[in-house]
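Risk register update: the risk of archive-format incompatibility is retired. Evidence:
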Amino acid sequence: QVQLVESGGGLVQPGGSLRLSCAASGFTFSSYGMGWFRQARGKEREFVSSISWSSGRTLYADSVKGRFTISRDNGLNTVYLRMDSLKPEDTAVYYCAADSITKRLVPLVGSNGYQYWGQGTQVTVSS
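Archived output:
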């Protein structure tokens, strides 16, 4: 049974930092690219960041570039999203997702290519 479990969300002041984790099980994590998406209330889900299966390639949305860092530990079956200099507009539910194709050279941006999704973790940036 495939599971993706996000953790690390919470309430943080503007300018603060959080690190999200996504623990994977039930599939060969090290063979799949992973992504982070977010959905703010009343808005569509949007791409945040993705990482290839080998960590060789990473991609970021323009809105988070320079502030967020994606990484993975294939030994722990976990993908991370380090978020610094947080802004109120970063407030959303954050989801991790696993690619549907093994060992894709370039990580995905579009959500349609991801086959497994976590339940999400709430991030609220407010003073």
